[in-house]
Design brief:
Helix content is 27%, strand content 31%. It is an alpha+beta fold and 297 residues long. The protein is elongated and about 65 Å long. The two termini are 37 Å apart.
Length: 297
């Protein structure tokens, strides 16, 4: 979970823009024993006034609106902060950014993470966060309030989720990420071993996950870049290969697909008409070539 100072910065940024008066009240006045005291729908951020890393993350994932709702019950205050994004994948990507160390689990459009009295949820194209506090400190979040919030948002957008477009066997649960085509996100948290091609991949969107095989020391990172046309996919794959083979000391691997080893990491590249796959693994990973061929089928 991102630090409290960064989260305060994120909220301060929204409060600095536009009228915080709600244009559309979608949360009910009462939820079980909870009574709503405020609901504000804040406008989409302007790009002209930077407000730190949190602002850049929101912009990179394309947030379109931000809603703040407060409920009270018997001396407790529950605050709901909710962002709407252009797609489920982008909402999930922002969810993973915010819930980084909150043991997040789930799939695109249906994910959950909780830690230290804060709950993070991705439902459809929404990310929302609920924190509950008493007079002195935070308390556990009411599960009923979380579920009701999820149902409310479900009625306002397409909230049907789908799993990552990546293989499930040996996938490390919780390692899944979605990177938007924005260099700020790629550079802030690059996938393991991707530094060698960061200048090429940072302008593209990608699904990323780690895979651990029988040997604990053997870790593969798979990046899947979606494309709408064969020519664009082929051009990007060629650019990746050119970048990898031009690195000082890079040596060609034994795989019949483009593969290069340098600096203790091996990179393999493969392309289909609609996606480009990049696998980053250890040099002594003899089964990776066959695995990548299986992914292309």
């Amino acid at each position: 979970m991102r630090g409290i100072h960064e989260y305060i910065l994120l909220i301060s940024f929204f409060l600095a823009f536009g009228d915080a008066t709600a244009r559309a009240q979608i949360f009910p006045d009462t939820v079980y024993q909870w009574t709503k005291t405020a609901e504000a729908l804040l406008p989409s951020p302007a790009r002209s006034n930077p407000a730190g890393t949190a602002r850049e993350v929101l912009e990179a994932y394309g947030v379109t609106e931000w809603r703040i709702v407060e409920y009270v019950r018997a001396g407790l205050t529950a605050r709901i902060d909710c962002g709407l994004f252009p797609s489920r994948a982008r909402a999930y990507g922002f969810f993973r950014w915010m819930a980084d160390d909150a043991e997040p689990e789930g799939i695109i459009g249906d994910a959950f993470g909780a830690r230290s009295g804060v709950v993070h949820v991705n439902t459809g194209p929404y990310y929302f966060r609920i924190a509950t506090a008493g007079a002195r400190n935070s308390v556990a979040v009411d599960d009923a309030l979380v579920e009701r919030s999820r149902r409310i948002l479900h009625g306002h957008a397409d909230c049907y989720g789908s799993d990552f477009p990546m293989p499930t066997d040996h996938r490390v649960i919780g390692s899944e990420r979605y990177y938007p085509p924005d260099p700020r996100i790629w550079k802030a948290a690059p996938p393991r071993g991707s530094e060698a091609v960061l200048s090429v991949i940072a302008a593209h969107a990608a699904y990323v996950a780690e895979y651990h095989l029988a040997r604990p020391v053997l870790r593969r990172v798979l990046l899947t870049f979606p494309f709408r046309g064969r020519a664009a996919a082929a051009e990007f794959a060629a650019e990746l290969v050119q970048q990898l083979q031009a690195r000082p000391g890079a040596r060609r691997g034994t795989c019949d697909l483009p593969s290069f080893t340098q600096g203790g990491m091996t990179h393999l590249v493969a392309a289909t008409p609609t996606r480009v796959l990049l696998v980053i693994t250890d040099p002594d990973d003899p089964g990776c070539c066959a695995w990548l061929h299986e992914l292309l089928r």
